[in-house]
């Protein structure tokens, strides 16, 4: 027997749960969310405590969305009574003497276009403001006050709870198999039954590969298993959120980290370490090899945080060739919406859910999402060159 709903959302992580909530805000009364694991689980990219939220981006395509991003989180906090965003300020650092061409030209250009205030710092000013850092005299910094932490697990809890309270049906432990697209509806076959709906939203992150054929998608989606590590230290008070910001260090590799939050430890990772995998090869436990490399960075630049490893965790980046979002409806099936986060969607999760709900209820959104369309060259051109690393550059060219 086929069960029918007006809207189906596949995936109940940060994006899917947000979409379910925002659909109810748009007046949709009959939403079903299908999730292969338990609700608010720790097995997807939304399972850890913290994600960086920032306005500082390499492209104005993202920076111009940040006003709406912060507004969406504000509404979720007000409605759920659950704090999700913690402002710590954000510090970007680079050493042009070590990494030729490095600088913040692209970042400043994007911030200037969006009218966002920021401060440029010399190495001396970095040390004065944050003596935890050990940096060379040629290091330069960029500080922006709104940077901070999004508690990604709390965000899933908030969106899920709010959606449930408005009547959304969640079906956990339900693995999606075949998806059939029709002119005016979809059919979704799962491990627990067959469902039909007028509209479909697919927010499965790195599991999208399993459904691309059914959805008529043929673009190259590369998966990289990434790792974050938490390090204990006898000097944790130096890294309290009120004393130390979220940070990104732009060198040959890009490292990023957090003050003490969620664990009695500081958190650090490399962005895009490039451990490429197939979906079925993912692992949920990190390793000491990557942990040692991260500990080495701390020993050099944040020595008072360089204690023993408390734990390692993993997540998977799901990246088109240009490592930008895919946020669109299918060109031949506008009643089906798709999202890929490319490894940097956590901060935008609530806004993305809002945009996806706009696309499926109004057929359009007021937010500028053209750069993330399914018709851009990185998606449609098989010869488009892959570029997965996001680097700070001195010029905007």
Please outline the helices and strands:
Layout: E1 2-10, H1 14-25, E2 31-34, E3 50-53, H2 60-63, H3 66-80, E4 85-87, E5 90-94, H4 105-114, E6 119-122, H5 123-129, E7 140-144, E8 148-151, H6 152-165, E9 169-171, E10 176-181, E11 186-190, E12 193-202, H7 212-215, E13 222-231, E14 246-250, E15 254-258, E16 266-271, E17 276-277, H8 288-301, E18 309-319, E19 326-330, E20 333-340, H9 349-361, H10 377-380
Parallel strand pairs: 1-2, 1-12, 2-9, 5-14, 12-20
Antiparallel strand pairs: 3-8, 4-8, 5-7, 6-7, 10-11, 11-12, 13-16, 13-17, 13-18, 14-15, 15-16, 19-20
Helix pairs in contact: 1-6, 1-9, 3-6, 3-9
Cofactor: FAD
EC number: 1.5.3.1
Pfam families: DAO
Low-confidence stretches: none
Q: What about the largest sheet?
A: 9 strands, mixed
Q: What percentage of amino acids are in beta strands? A: 25-35%
Which CATH architecture of the largest domain would you pick?
Answer: 3-Layer(bba) Sandwich
Helix percentage range: 10-25%
Mean pLDDT: 95
The helix/strand class is: alpha+beta
Q: Termini separation (Å)?
A: 57 Å
Q: H/E series, N to C?
A: EHEEHHEEHEHEEHEEEEHEEEEEHEEEHH
Shape: globular
CATH superfamily placement of the largest domain? FAD/NAD(P)-binding domain
In DSSP terms (H or I, runs of 4 or more residues), the helix count works out at 10
Q: Specify the CATH class of the largest domain.
A: Alpha Beta
Please provide the count of β strands. Answer: 20
CATH T-level fold name of the largest domain = FAD/NAD(P)-binding domain
What Rg, in angstroms, do the CA atoms define?
Answer: 21 Å
Number of domains: 2
EC number: 1.5.3.1
Cofactor: FAD
Keywords: FAD, Flavoprotein, Oxidoreductase
Protein name: Sarcosine oxidase
